[in-house]
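Researcher: Before we compare anything, I want clean individual predictions. No alignment, no superposition, just each chain on its own. First chain goes here; please echo the sequence and then give the structure tokens.
Model: Echoing the first chain and its structure:
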Amino acid sequence: MIMTKQVDILEKYGEMINMIPDIVCLTNKDHIITHCNERLLEQLGIERKEIIGITGMNFLTKESQEK
């Protein structure tokens, strides 16, 4: 059900999300990244396939993850 809602949101607002100049990242209930806008990809210098399916914890240092 949650995934269906997110797909509906992306179909409806996906283009608008990509036009937002700020970083936008959508996650599921387990904090796994399911969608991000082009701005995030530009800032990180990565491709979409590299970020979809991981959590934000992947971007923290080991010290930050332990806190």
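Researcher: Okay. Second chain, same rules.
Model: Second chain and its structure:
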Amino acid sequence: MRIRRASAGDLSAIPYVHVESWKSTYRGLLPDPLIDDLDEMGRVVQWQQWINQPDEGLFIYVAEAAEGSHPPIEGFAACGRSQSVPFCDGEVYAIYLLQSAQRKGLGRKLMAAAVSRLRNSGARSAGVVVLSTNPARRFYEVLGGTLFGEQDGDFRGHPCREAVYTWRDLAPLTNAAPHWNEWGSGHPVVLIHGWTCDGDYWRLQRESLQKEYRVITLDLPGHGASPPIAGDFTLDLCARSVADVMDRAGVPRAALIGHSLGGFIARRFAQLHPDRVTGLGIIDSPFSLATSSYFDEKARAFESVDGRDARIRAIDKMFSPGFDENRKQHILAEMLATPGPIASRMFRVMSHPAIADEPALHLPTLLIPAAGKAMGDDALLTGMFPKSEIRRLNCGHFVTFEKPLELSYHLHQFLQKLHQ
């Protein structure tokens, strides 16, 4: 069962699950005319607004159904900044499951993903509001929720009573292991995302690669739905997370593909575990900047009073002129959801003055620099990766979005040669 972040492709399935879950849950708890009048199309409009409107305080996760099922998801969870729960940082706005999917552990998995994301966004406490007469409130009690109290509410114009549950310690609800998913079959490929992103940033490449390969994505420590950082954020910590996911997936060796920070991590993993890597793909990882003071200076700016604006300026420079503005605002909102001090620590890890002096990695490697010189010139790159091929693309830093077809093509070509 895959728990992943919702995308625009879920716009028809989420409202269906929403309304069907309402009908099965609230029948007998609310007047029948109110239940019968529930409108799936009305939900579609609402969810379109929520999914399509960039908001660094809203996160939606879905539980995928078996391939070929209708609908393609069995449930979803939505969470973000607290709106209805007093004295809490975060709130789980909704967890809904189809009746056929209940009592299978999906609710716990969705809750873990949602709360992990809240914690990685800086929330230290969270709550949920549930209809007082809803027997499903027992679910939150089992998860350790404390009844904060009851309040008057409104369900589509009908007065009702609501129970408010809170958690002051979110750790017991959080995923204990790295959040990861896999698709397809064949030779394994592990996709490693960049700074303050998550595994979903590989969606377009994953959809292409999974037709021929077993594709594994993960959220790095402190990112997405993985556990928050406990201690220092280091390349070794991230490499251990990749190794953990590979072990859990039963994958002894794989090709590692990393974007930006993910390229640094793929390289570090290969240094530590060369016998577990069949090949490397590194997409616009700024190795040339690692030897300068760039990352330390930017990290200090992110920690300043003007830190949020400094991050916005830094991220804005990663896009090409003319990049889709709505997509850009989505990416910006998602990256800004990581608190400034944590984002700074994650950014600083790419500072590596001695990177060019370290032993070269003699592994088959695909290097894809974007426009600009951040990744380095051919001399630097071939010195670090003597068995590399370089394919430069004229685009901004987010190659996965700006040149998805070209990137997928080069990855396919590289992987085919790797496994001939």
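Researcher: What stands out in the second chain?
Model: The mean pLDDT is 93. Additionally, The two ends are 32 Å apart (CA to CA).
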